[in-house]
Each structure stands twice: as C-alpha cells, then as structure tokens.
Amino acid sequence: MARPRLNSGDSHSEDLPKPKINKETLKKALKIFSYIRPFKWKFVIGMVFLILSSLTMLTFPALMGAMIDAAQGKQKFDWLPADVMYIGLLSISILAVQSTISFFRIRLFVEIAEKSLANIRKDTYHRLITLPIDFFANRRVGELNSRLSADLSQIQDTMTTTLAEILRQTISLGVGVFLLVLVSPKLALMNLSVLPIIIVVALIFGRFIRKLSKESQDQLADSNAIVQETLLGISNVKAFVNEYFESKRYASKLGKAVNLAVKGATYRGLFASFIIFAIFGAAIVVIWYGASLVSINEISVGDLTMYILYSMFVAGSMGSFPELYASIQRSLGASERVLEILDEDQEDIKVDETDKNIKQPLTGAIAFDHVRFSYPTRPDIQILKDISFQIQAGKKLAIVGPSGTGKSTIASLILQFYQPTDGTIYYDGIPASELALTDIRNQVAVVPQDVLLFGGTIRENISYGNLQADAEEIITAAKRANAHNFIMDFPDGYDTIVGERGVKLSGGQRQRIAIARALLKDPAILILDEATSSLDSESERLVQLALEELMKNRTSVIIAHRLSTIRDADMIIVVENGFISDVGTHQELMNKGGGLYQHLYQLQSLQVFES
Ligand SMILES: Nc1ncnc2c1ncn2[C@@H]1O[C@H](COP(=O)(O)OP(=O)(O)OP(=O)(O)O)[C@@H](O)[C@H]1O
Ligand SMILES: [Mg+2]
C-alpha cells in the first residue's frame, strides 16, 4: 500500500513519463539500492521472515477445509486428527506465530528503508549544494525540492513495501495456483481458463480510463493555475479590470475538465460493472460447479472450502500486480532523477570543517585580463566581450553602466561562480586557477543587489558571515552597519524571526543586515552590488554610512546605480555592450565631456533636483 503523501510533489511525479522497465533502468535503480548494502544482513533476515510469513499464510485454507471436513467426521490429512477443537487451536497458534513474524519483518524493512533513505537524502543534498551555480540556472527550485521529497519518498515506498509485496504476492500466486490444481484439477482448469480473458479486458479498460482521468486532471491543474496566478496577482487583475476575462478563462478550463471527467465516469461505470460481474460470476460458477462435484462425491465440502479460500488468495495477488508494477515504474523514474543529481560534476571544493581555513591569504588586488564571458545556459550571447582592468589592494573600484550590461556578472566572476570563457582573473597577481576556490570565496564578501535572508533569526542571519562569531561580535557588527537600532526596536531584538514566517524587513534594513554579515566576515575584497530600487533619503543615508564603515581597509568593488555614492572612488569603469568604454576618476570622467558617465550623472542630478 502506498503511504499517503501530503506534499504537492505527488501529482508532479504522476505527470512525469514513466520509464519502461528494462536492463538500463534496472541497472540504474540497482545503484540506488546499493544504499541498502550496509544493512544487508537485516535485509536478508527480513526476506526470510517475509517468505516464512507468506508460506504460513497459505496453511490456513488447508486448515479451514480440514476443520469443515472434521465437523462431518471425515479426516482430510493423515497428519491432522479430525478434531475441530484441535484444528482450531492449531490455526490460532500458527496465526500468532505468523503475526509475530510479520511484526519483525515490517519493523526490519522500515528500519532499513528509513536509514538508507536518510543516507541517499544526505548524499543528494550534499551533492546539490556543492554543484556549480549554473546547474541551478536551468532548473526550478521547486523541481529540485521535489526530487528530495517526492522522488525519494517514492523510492522509500518501494523499499519498504513494494519489494516485499512483490515477493509475497508471487509466492502466494505460485503456491496458490499449485494448491488449486492439487485440490481439484477440474475446478482449477475451468477457473484458470476464464481468468486470462478477464485480466486482458481489465488491463485494456484500465489503461484507457487512466488516460482519460489524466487528461481531466491536467485540465483541472490548468484551471487551478489560473486561480493561483490571479490570486497572487490580484492587484493586477483589478487594476486592469480583468475580472470578467479571468472568470471566463477559468470557467472555460473548468468546463473542459468536467466534460472529460464525465466521459471518464461513463467508462469507469462500465468497467466497474464488468469487474463486479466477472468476480461474482466467477465465484458463482466455482461454487456452482464445485457444489455439483460435491454432490457426486468427487470432492468433499472441506475441499470446496479450501478451494474457494485458495482462489481468493490467488485472485488477490493477481489483482495487486498492476499497482505493484506501476509503483516499480514510478520508483525507477524517481531513482533516475535522483541519480541525475548524484552523477553531476561537483564544484572543485572540499566541503568539511577545514573549508574555512585560508591557505593563501590575499591582500585584495584584482585584475581582469581580456575577460570574455557568456553564461553556460546561453552560450550564443556574449555578455562580456573584452574586459580588462586592475585594482590595487585597498582601493575602491566603481563599475557603472546601463542596466543588463553585465555589471552583476562581473561580480559573479570575481566570486568564481562561473569561469570566464576566455581571459584570466588574477587575485594578488595569481591566476584564479592556481588558487583554491574556497580561498577566494573565503576572502570575498558580497552585499548583493537583492538581499535574500534565510528564514531564521536576525542573529543567525548576521552570523552567517562568520559562524564562529560570538554574541558580542554580532552586536558590534550590527552597530557598525547601523542595524542595531532598528533591530532593538523589535520586541524580540536579535531573536526576531525574519522571512516568510516572521518579520518582513524593508529593503534598506535587509541591506544593513547584509552589510553586518559582510563586516563579520571581514574579507579582503568586498563587492557591493547596489540595489536598483532607491531607498528613501534617511534610509539611504544610514546604508551609506554603513557602507563606508564596511569599505574601510579593504578592496571594494562597487556596482553603482546612484552615481553620487562613488564620487570618491579611485577608479570608475564604464561598461557598455560588453566592453569598457571609459575609465577614470569621477573628475576625469566629468571633464572628458560627451561620455556616457557624464550623461548618466547629469540625468541623475536632474532627477534629484526634480524630486
Ligand atoms: N544566470 C544567467 N544566465 C543567463 N543569462 C544571464 C544570467 N544572469 C544574467 N544574465 C544576462 O546577462 C546580462 C547581464 O546581466 P547582469 O545581471 O550582469 O546585468 P547588470 O549590469 O547587473 O544589470 P542591472 O544594472 O540591471 O543590475 C543580462 O542580459 C541578463 O539577462
Ligand atoms: Mg545587476
């Protein structure tokens, strides 16, 4: 039985194509099952218990048949006295043993599955967060998340129940059919000749109905997407007076879903009556024919009872196979998707307790030497065409230029999120390739364009810059970042929860948290990607003061949108269309006249003047 899952990932895994079960996919799946290896003895014991419990289960029809015959004074088996009391007690005792075995089997399998699953989860997560950034550009976070939850739960289902079920049902089917033939070859022959017809019809019908219901589910999902989109963007719907349009759109999708569902219901009704007819028909025929065999004394009443019980076992296991097969298919698909992550190339970093140790301290000089770059996801578009500049340690470099020109991209390159397609980046004169990735990242801090905080406390968010920092250091950093006051205004102070489930901080507040975080890290190189949305003047002044504090004694790369903030930069580079179109200090660039910098600067002064 599949466990119910609460997360939405369930429908997602239904939608994905199910792989055919063949050698290739099985080989891949086996790799997942190698996680069972540490528990192999428990697994073997579990299997033995499983076989034992399946076999003992199959003794009951024989015992029941013998009991009924015993009631009529007949002895069915030589080894079993024709004593109703005796047979009854024996049955109960076997049942007790069987239940005990089942308990241990389930307990063992669940333990194995939980522990090996946890190992797969750990490995997948570890692999995931050590993958290079461009892996994430191609995928939605929701999808990756569902691999960790839905896909792995699917695999877990298979490990805990499906595999055991397959074995159990196979035993019960095989031994069951054998015993049917043993009890009454005539009845069995008649029974087994109609069975294949029922199965084939059921399979064809079932597939057809599933297709219909999937189509209707898709339509329903579409209509739900409309609800979600419009509710999230309700202010847009209202502002454009599109309520009528959206209602109509929703109604039309819903109508389609209903039509398909009704069509599906017709076939499902037909299918259900067919199955009921077939099952009860078969039962009637067996008892009918069986009763006539009893009347001519060919078999005893006990034999007939035994036969009916065994045929229930056989029918039950036959009926369970399609679901088991589907579950195996789903698991194969799931393990393929999980393995895809486990097979990805990791970034060249060692993730352990030593990853914060700096082997090669940097003073902070940076040089770009004819750097060209296009994003791996869009190799045809060259973002940086030829970028060269140098900045000495402790100096302030500003990058300006139109939106979308590649300023944040330069920051990503300094952080080594990507490698240049051409050219070299030097840190203290050493090419990036000769430095450890962790050495570079440990000595660069970034205050990004849009600061994203984790959903923990403010304290945790600041200490992310240096996990070893004590409470004192965190407060000092917050004070220097001009964040202490607003933090203390919250009733919970530093323990205020931020993010989705807590306080939502303003843009300026989030930036100051990010600045405190960077201060705590105390890096040689600081990258400041200014927020595009401007803050109000008070907030901007506080952020500006915090930034000046932060920039002291280190190399700063400022990606500036408010040009007023970079007047004292040691060097300003103007990036346009992937090239550096101008270099100089504020004064030099202003004196040049006619350039983009002067133009932008004048535009901004005008705006300030107007507002
Ligand atoms: N991960 C990515 N994958 C592919 N293309 C990207 C990626 N990130 C940015 N780009 C593209 O690269 C170009 C430069 O983007 P970038 O973010 O560096 O611009 P920017 O100069 O920082 O702009 P802004 O001033 O608006 O912040 C844009 O055309 C953008 O669409
Ligand atoms: Mg940017």
Give a count of the beta strands, DSSP E runs of length 2 or more. 10
SS summary, helix count: 20
Distance between the termini: 67 Å
- The SS-based structural class is alpha/beta
**What value does the Rg take, in angstroms?**
36 Å
Q: What is the H level of CATH, i.e. the homologous superfamily of the domain at 16-180 and 329-347?
A: ABC transporter type 1, transmembrane domain
Q: Kindly estimate the percentage of residues that lie in beta strands according to DSSP.
A: 5-15%
> Which CATH class of the domain at 16-180 and 329-347 is shown?
Mainly Alpha
Strand order of the largest sheet: 6-7-8-3-9-10
Bound molecules: adenosine-5'-triphosphate, magnesium ion
Report the biggest beta sheet as strand number plus sense, adding barrel if it closes. Answer: 6 strands, mixed
The SSE order reads HHHHHHHHHHHEEEHEEHEHHHHEHEEEHH
Q: In CATH terms, what is the fold-level topology of the domain at 16-180 and 329-347?
A: ABC transporter transmembrane region fold
Structure explained in plain terms:
The protein is of the alpha/beta class and 611 residues long. The chain has a domain at 16-180 and 329-347: ABC transporter transmembrane region fold (Up-down Bundle), CATH 1.20.1560. The protein contains 20 helices and 10 strands. The chain has helices at residues 9-15, 23-33, 40-57, 59-71, 84-129, 133-137, 141-183, 185-232, 234-239, 243-295, 301-343, 407-414, 437-442, 458-463, 471-480, 484-489, 507-521, 537-551, 586-592, 596-610; strands at 366-373, 384-391, 396-400, 422-427, 430-431, 444-447, 525-529, 555-559, 571-576, 579-584. The structure holds adenosine-5'-triphosphate (ATP) and magnesium ion (MG). Magnesium ion binds at residues 407-408, 449, 529.
